[in-house]
Please model this.
Amino acid sequence: MPVTVVYVDLLWLLNFIANHLLLLGAGRLAGAGLRRWRIALGAALGAVYAVVLFLPGMGWLSLLPCKLAVAVLMVVCAYGGEMRLWRVLGLFFAASAGLAGAVLGFEWLGNTSLTLQSGVLYTQMDLRLLLVVFLACYFVFSLLLRRLGAHTGSELVHMELTFPQRVVSMTALHDTGLTLSDPVTNRPVVVAYWRDFAWLLPQGADVAQPVACARLCHDQGIHGVRLVPYRAVGVDTGMLLAYPTQGVRVDGRDMGKLLLALSPTPVNDGGTYQGLFGGV
Model:
């Protein structure tokens, strides 16, 4: 009976990379906030599970309920606390099924094996070649996400907003037809649903009454809050409460200190994005 020699370091690394890409892709498709260290933690958990499967007496971990439990735990590690957790979980399972199909097809076409028992990813291929393949797959995947998110004059982007309290990551819709801007600097204004940033508001604040809300913020020593005028269908003139940021990055590009306007109603189209902004 042939014996397969498994190198633990390669087994762990290969499954870590695959898990990381699956978690990252599921989060982006779901429009969830991305925290890289948490995604890495979830991916590492799945990679450890792949290694433990081959320890003596641990074969029972390959049972379907155990696999499902580990998958759920990985997603919770990466996105626990997100409002879109269930959406991420469903997309993670779908992406995993897609990866399994791709691996099976590659095995058939290439007459080689990319898996061990229990469906764990493993191969004796050169590690540098594998890394190049994974990076190429990630590039293609990111390009497809951009195409899927494209609208006429609009696109989905990854946005990071920095505040004194924390850094918030989210998916935003960049709509060049949106004219909302800061009346002082004429820079674009990021708009998001107030519930996603409720931690910025003092207790008792109501963004549906922006003037009173701004006054309450000033009374409680929250500086830099201002009102941004806007127009919309059915609204000739309205006001949005806006908070200053310490910096905004869009797909890694520094946009400077833009304002974040809090909308009293959701701005997304069902969960694809959590914010929007216009301008260039």
User: Anything to note?
Assistant: Residues 162 and 247 are 5 Å apart (CA to CA). The beta strands are 154-162, 167-175, 189-193, 226-232, 235-244, 247-250, 253-256, 259-263, 275-277. The first strand starts at residue 154 and ends at 162. The mean pLDDT is 76.
